[in-house]
Design goal:
Length: about 450
């Protein structure tokens, strides 16, 4: 099928590339000429395992191309995905200006029936706003009857596993209108996604509003599990309980399950923080409060301070003359994404307290520097005390403690003896619970994890 993706950011590129790999002819549109030039010269603007090779092979096969030409891109697709950003407004609501601008461009160039798919995460009612913009644009061209139908098809992929998640979806949510155009759109969407439904029907068809809400509900539920465990982990630290044993103990109940119950430094990234805030905001707009989710957000903000608190407990609030090794900057492994990354809170706090930092991250170094320059724009001199190490172990030399923020694989089984020899004192503050407290104790470390107190 012919498919157009509007917005060649994270979700757009992954969606377009994977759909091309399934045999469709895909055109990815972006207004950013530099991004399109980079993609056309074989570069990839984001870090995502497996994506670059897939882009290359599908571009070479002639199934995937990149353009800034709006008219050509709109004409190309039977199905047009809107996959542009929805950054949070100052009040936490999702800013729809890019989504509605994309709808306007479609309306200005559309001829004949098109399926317009909202792939971006958008609040309830956006499908209707997109349809209104399209209708207005068509009326202005004297084409009120050129057909279209707006479909909501939220994306559930995780950064770092995006290609795999797209190619092996748990479910495909399709929100469609209950009219003739909606049924025509549904038939086309079913054809597009048929390869995923061969052995097992994964499609959930519903109305547009419910589909839009489903995406927020999924992320809000996962964020709730994380904040719940972080809250319990902080209590576990005080009452001598190992939260990891508790996780296993409760996860074995199939009603609970094991996943997304890891205590840590709080959730970050481009989705959970933004989507939780947006849902809280939608509720308030409708005269209701989502009290559970408001607490989820408050607990998460607080949890981003957990490593700062542990470092201050160990060294006091004045860190002048102290040096810390820091492992991991990205908000999670296998990505260079620094959006809402807990490391940003930690780095700023340690630098403000006078510390030196030697940080390591396998891929996020440039992104991290960029983010931290923004965070510390008013106090740029602080960054003079931040350095980067090329290898994890290099960061440890002469450091007062190692602080672990992101659970990259490379940090999972270090040589503890070498680690101890390099550190000035054997202290590890672990925001991701990577090691067994007993093993660390046996190796002679003081080990401060999240909800895993040392015994004895
Ligand atoms: C998330 C959703 O998983 C995905 O379905 C949606 O489409 C986008 O948002 P992503 O933000 O890429 O994906 O990462 P995810 O792996 O879900 O992790 C989110 C955050 O939660 C990370 O900061 C991670 O460290 C944290 N997390 C996750 C925990 O602290 N504990 C857990 O048990 C799981």
């Amino acid at each position: 099928m012919n498919v157009t993706i509007i917005g060649s950011g994270y979700v757009g590129l992954v969606t377009g590339t994977c759909l091309a790999d399934l045999g469709n002819h895909v055109v990815c549109l972006d207004l950013d000429q530099r991004k399109i030039d980079l993609l056309n010269s074989g570069g990839v603007p984001i870090y995502e395992p497996g994506l670059d090779a897939l882009i290359q092979s599908n571009a070479e096969a002639g199934r995937l191309s990149f353009t800034t030409d709006v008219a050509a891109a709109v004409t190309h697709g039977e199905i047009l995905f809107i996959a542009v950003g929805t950054p949070p407004d100052e009040d936490g609501s999702a800013d729809l200006k890019h989504v509605l601008a994309a709808a306007r461009s479609i309306g200005q160039h559309l001829r004949g029936f098109k399926v317009v798919v909202d792939k971006s995460t958008v609040p309830v009612g956006t499908g209707e706003k997109v349809a209104a913009v399209l209708r207005d644009a068509l009326a202005a061209r004297d084409l009120p009857d050129a057909g279209f139908s707006v479909v909501s098809n939220p994306e559930f992929l995780k950064e770092g596993a995006a290609v795999e998640d797209f190619m092996r979806p748990d479910r495909i949510v399709l929100g469609v209108d209950d009219d003739e155009a909606g049924q025509r759109a549904l038939a086309l969407m079913r054809r597009l996604y048929a390869p995923f439904n061969r052995n097992h029907e994964r499609t959930r068809v519903m109305d547009v509003r419910s589909a839009e809400f489903t995406k927020y509900a999924a992320n809000a539920m996962l964020a709730t599990r994380i904040s719940f465990m972080n809250d319990l982990a902080n209590l576990a630290d005080r009452v001598g309980v190992d939260i990891e044993l508790v996780r296993q103990g409760i996860g074995s109940d199939p009603r609970i399950g094991y996943s997304f119950l890891y205590a840590g430094t709080g959730y970050g990234g481009s989705c959970f923080p933004k989507d939780v805030q947006a849902l809280v905001h939608t509720a308030r707009e409708h005269g209701q409060r989502l009290r559970v989710l408001e607490a989820v957000e408050a607990v998460n903000e607080d949890q981003k301070q957990v490593l700062v608190r542990k470092v201050f407990d160990a060294f006091g609030p004045d860190l002048a003359g102290r040096r810390f090794a820091l492992w991991g900057l990205a908000f999670k492994p296998n990505t260079d994404d620094m959006r809402a990354a807990p490391s940003r809170v930690l780095v700023a706090a340690l630098l403000r307290a006078g510390a030196e930092i030697v940080a390591h991250d396998p891929v996020a170094r440039d992104e991290a520097l960029h983010a931290l320059r923004q965070d510390l724009a008013a106090e740029p001199a602080l960054l003079e005390r931040l350095r980067f190490a090329d290898k994890p172990m290099q960061a440890l030399e002469g450091a007062d403690a190692l602080v672990i923020v992101t659970e990259w694989k490379a940090y999972r089984s270090p040589n503890l003896a070498a680690m101890k020899a390099l550190l000035k004192q054997p202290l590890v503050v672990d925001g991701r619970n990577l090691y067994e407290p007993e093993a660390m104790q046996r190796a002679g470390f003081r080990y401060l994890a999240v909800g895993r107190p040392m015994r004895g």
